[in-house]
């Protein structure tokens, strides 16, 4: 059996972990990146594509394979192509559509009794500092901050003119919560019936993080942007963890009820921790996130479960192995 994934995002970690668990590995790569992936001996097979339609055909051509999704999948291939993937996908493919829609995404968090920021349906309602977000896994591209409704309207007009969005219905206008970002990585195991904390990270964003290095008198005319360029490791004080786990378990239960067959494998609660040590979750990712790339040898938290190196990529492969042994692959794929 092959473990296969699209060449981008967290593919190296996924395939490295699969090889550690004894699987054959394959990457579906843009032909421009083929030489890059040839550098890594744990990748057994490279299938290169020149068009995105070819990428889907290559994915479907490997019958004895399980496909691992990550954040670049929908952003690169788009939903209409992802729906054409016929081989088993690790995780819940029904969650992709929810994740690509900001409003549906936030409804899952709200229904999970998770503290989320206030949102505004109409720019006219804005009465505080907000952040305007585009749909999909864009790594922060196109997001902007606005102090009032006139700035929201101005920013939306720019997005419409550039055709980044087709309608203001495409975006979510969300209260900007002041605090420190903390992205909690979790893994739900249908085989072991448990939620595991696998790590945390902070996103390193340009140019909003770069502006912090300059005096405020030099940055007043520069528009902050939120394109993610990297990730920074972080460890939370232990007193925050019970609340984070409550949120994670609530989320797993909500997804089970609203998006069958439920949560499978890695997910992330993307949060801000306020000065009162309240956790406010402003978004979720329903699959492996790039912040897990920090922990190829496992995070301090994954060692508490496994007492051995356990990246999220390897944890995915371990779940597949456990399911295969118990003849339960149908419970972890869709």
From TrEMBL:
One of its GO terms (biological process) is 'de novo' IMP biosynthetic process. Pfam families: DUF1246 (PF06849), DUF1297 (PF06973). Pathway: Purine metabolism; IMP biosynthesis via de novo pathway; 5-formamido-1-(5-phospho-D-ribosyl)imidazole-4-carboxamide from 5-amino-1-(5-phospho-D-ribosyl)imidazole-4-carboxamide (formate route): step 1/1. ATP binds at residue 205. InterPro entries: ATP-grasp, ATP_grasp_subdomain_1, IMP_biosynth_PurP, IMP_biosynth_PurP_C, IMP_biosynth_PurP_N, PreATP-grasp_dom_sf. Its cofactor is Mn(2+); Mg(2+). 5-amino-1-(5-phospho-beta-D-ribosyl)imidazole-4-carboxamide binds at residues 9, 72, 231. It is an enzyme of class 6 (ligase). Residues 93-321 form the ATP-grasp domain. PROSITE patterns: ATP_GRASP. It catalyses: 5-amino-1-(5-phospho-beta-D-ribosyl)imidazole-4-carboxamide + formate + ATP = 5-formamido-1-(5-phospho-D-ribosyl)imidazole-4-carboxamide + ADP + phosphate. This is 5-formaminoimidazole-4-carboxamide-1-(beta)-D-ribofuranosyl 5'-monophosphate synthetase. The gene is purP.
């Amino acid at each position: 059996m092959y473990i296969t994934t699209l060449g981008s995002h967290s593919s190296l970690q996924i395939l490295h972990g699969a090889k550690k668990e004894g699987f054959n590995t394959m990457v579906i790569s843009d032909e421009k990146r083929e030489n890059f992936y040839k550098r890594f001996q744990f990748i057994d097979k490279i299938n290169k594509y020149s068009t995105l339609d070819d990428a889907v055909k290559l994915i479907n051509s490997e019958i004895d394979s399980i496909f691992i999704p990550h954040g670049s999948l929908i952003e690169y291939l788009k939903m209409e192509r992802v729906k054409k993937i016929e081989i088993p996908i690790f995780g819940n493919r029904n969650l992709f559509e929810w994740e690509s829609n900001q409003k549906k995404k936030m409804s899952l968090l709200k229904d999970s009794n998770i503290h989320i920021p206030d949102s505004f349906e109409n720019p006219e309602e804005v009465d505080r500092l907000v952040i305007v977000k585009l749909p999909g896994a864009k790594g922060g591209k196109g997001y902007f901050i606005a102090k009032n409704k006139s700035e929201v309207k101005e920013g939306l007009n720019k997005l419409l003119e550039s055709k980044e969005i087709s309608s203001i219905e495409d975006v979510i206008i969300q209260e900007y919560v002041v605090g420190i970002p903390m992205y909690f990585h979790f893994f739900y195991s249908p085989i072991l019936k448990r939620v595991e904390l696998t790590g945390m990270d902070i996103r390193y964003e340009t140019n909003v993080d770069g502006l912090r290095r300059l005096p405020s008198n030099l940055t007043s005319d520069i528009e902050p942007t939120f394109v993610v360029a990297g990730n920074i490791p972080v460890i939370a004080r232990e007193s925050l963890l019970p609340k984070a786990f409550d949120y994670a378990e609530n989320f797993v239960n909500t997804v089970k009820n609203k998006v069958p067959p439920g949560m499978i494998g890695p997910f992330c609660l993307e949060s801000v921790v306020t000065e009162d040590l309240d956790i406010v979750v402003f978004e979720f990712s329903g699959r492996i996130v790039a912040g897990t790339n920090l922990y190829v040898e496992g995070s301090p938290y994954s060692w508490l479960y496994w007492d051995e190196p356990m990246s999220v990529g390897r944890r995915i492969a371990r779940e597949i192995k456990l399911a295969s042994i118990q003849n339960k692959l149908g419970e972890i794929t869709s």
